[in-house]
Amino acid sequence: MTTIAELPPGFADKVLSAQSTFRSVMDAMARPGSVQRIVPVAGTPGPMMRGTAAIALTLFDHDTPLWLDAGMSESSDVVKWLKFHTGAPVVQDSSIAAFALIAEGTALPPLERFALGSSEYPDRSTTLILQVDGLDAGRSFELRGPGIDGVATLQATIRPADLFERLSVNEALFPRGIDVVLVSDDSVVAIPRTTRVANKGS
Amino acid sequence: MNAPAYNFAYLDEQTKRMIRRAILKAIAIPGYQVPFASREMPMPYGWGTGGVQVTAAILGPQDVLKVIDQGSDDTTNAISIRKFFAKTAGVATTTATQDATVIQTRHRIPEAALHENQVLVYQVPIPEPLRFLEPRETETRRMHALAEYGLMHVKLYEDIARFGHIATAYAYPVKVNARYVMDPSPTPKFDNPKMDNCPALQLFGAGREKRIYAIPPYTQVVSLDFEDHPFEPYRFNAPCALCGAENSYLDEIVTDDKGGRMFVCSDTDYCEGRQAAGHHGSLSAAPYKERAHGGSNG
């Protein structure tokens, strides 16, 4: 049993670390495919990566229901750490979650199980925080859409391998849809619902 | 008792988280107005409380802030907001467009081209472009959901029927990423083309109306028009009286009570930069200013 005192720490400087992390995530969302670094350091409970922990401390609170995949929820450290540092409620129903934390991409549920927003309120959708193996090497993906000057190329090692095929539902659903933040260690890449991806193979 | 009286950038952290989440959704859905729990700020509604909250949520100690009001760095609203953040966040401020990382603006887009490392924050009074055509929020929300924008085209057509041209001169409606019709805030329509494919991120905050929306960089922004009445940016046909610029947006300034007037650049930084570079207008014969541009804000 881990006591509260033994839990990994949050940010050393809550205010400026959250600001710095947010700017990285905002830049990532505004420029899909670009790799942004998260500088501030926080404790990383269980399978949680540095970037995921920083995003949690920056964006989660009592207003944001969280859905955790098995890899995250099986770690009592993750659950306790989130509860202590963010106070965000963990929910079983993924369709009401504001954020979903995915440690194991291979076990990503079908995207329709998450909140997709409504036509009137497309912002009421789940943002996926998906931990991946690498954002510097691997398959190449060609990205187009708002925030991208022409074409952006992303090289990444991502599970599930068919993530971008699954995300193609965003095209038909728009303005409803799912926004994804990919995290690998301290690197983040955002794929908002407006981004269209062509798989270039290896 | 040395604790600061305010949190960094004035807002508390819970409020910043809420605004930051709204900003991320706004970027993901270009042109869609995201509702947010706007706070009371230490200034009245109409003085830029929406823009101030957005700026407070994104601002960091490394940022360099510029604030303009109708293009001017030197008016009451611009100076008070600049001082507000200099005091509560300790950030560096500037009047030079090129040097700023965050630019908060009321009703203008700077003349100088923006670059990728900049965020433009607009103060917005009425975010809903359809509000004066349909007062019910439930209805305008449904019209956006269905992309039902015929009413706006009828409004522009009625302009043509009455005046022979589209008479809307400011807050000219645009369509963002071929989906949402958006109010660019009361900027002159002269500025509309600058929003299209802009390298900088554009964020919009409406405090009283509690909405945040955004245009990501490199996003298509089209001013609504008709094939036979294409959109035309309007500019008074004269050079700036101080710097001679023929391509900037002009303010009309009344100089006496006998009908005298002069036209000068509304963007003071652009105008001063041109004068410092040796450009002269018809009324700038006198030595311009002793203080070098870019000095203290005093």
Automatic annotation (TrEMBL), chain A:
<keyword id="KW-0456">Lyase</keyword>
<dbReference type="GO" id="GO:0016829">
    <property type="term" value="F:lyase activity"/>
</dbReference>
<dbReference type="InterPro" id="IPR038058">
    <property type="entry name" value="PhnH-like_sp"/>
</dbReference>
<dbReference type="GO" id="GO:0019634">
    <property type="term" value="P:organic phosphonate metabolic process"/>
</dbReference>
<protein>
    <submittedName>
        <fullName>Carbon-phosphorus lyase subunit PhnH</fullName>
    </submittedName>
</protein>
<dbReference type="Pfam" id="PF05845">
    <property type="entry name" value="PhnH"/>
</dbReference>
<dbReference type="InterPro" id="IPR008772">
    <property type="entry name" value="Phosphonate_metab_PhnH"/>
</dbReference>
TrEMBL record, chain B:
<dbReference type="GO" id="GO:0098848">
    <property type="term" value="F:alpha-D-ribose 1-methylphosphonate 5-phosphate C-P-lyase activity"/>
</dbReference>
<comment type="similarity">
    <text>Belongs to the PhnJ family.</text>
</comment>
<comment type="function">
    <text>Catalyzes the breakage of the C-P bond in alpha-D-ribose 1-methylphosphonate 5-phosphate (PRPn) forming alpha-D-ribose.</text>
</comment>
<dbReference type="GO" id="GO:0051539">
    <property type="term" value="F:4 iron, 4 sulfur cluster binding"/>
</dbReference>
<dbReference type="GO" id="GO:0046872">
    <property type="term" value="F:metal ion binding"/>
</dbReference>
<keyword id="KW-0949">S-adenosyl-L-methionine</keyword>
<keyword id="KW-0411">Iron-sulfur</keyword>
<dbReference type="InterPro" id="IPR010306">
    <property type="entry name" value="PhnJ"/>
</dbReference>
<protein>
    <recommendedName>
        <fullName>Alpha-D-ribose 1-methylphosphonate 5-phosphate C-P lyase</fullName>
        <ecNumber>4.7.1.1</ecNumber>
    </recommendedName>
</protein>
<keyword id="KW-0479">Metal-binding</keyword>
<keyword id="KW-0456">Lyase</keyword>
<keyword id="KW-0408">Iron</keyword>
<keyword id="KW-0004">4Fe-4S</keyword>
<dbReference type="GO" id="GO:0019700">
    <property type="term" value="P:organic phosphonate catabolic process"/>
</dbReference>
<dbReference type="Pfam" id="PF06007">
    <property type="entry name" value="PhnJ"/>
</dbReference>
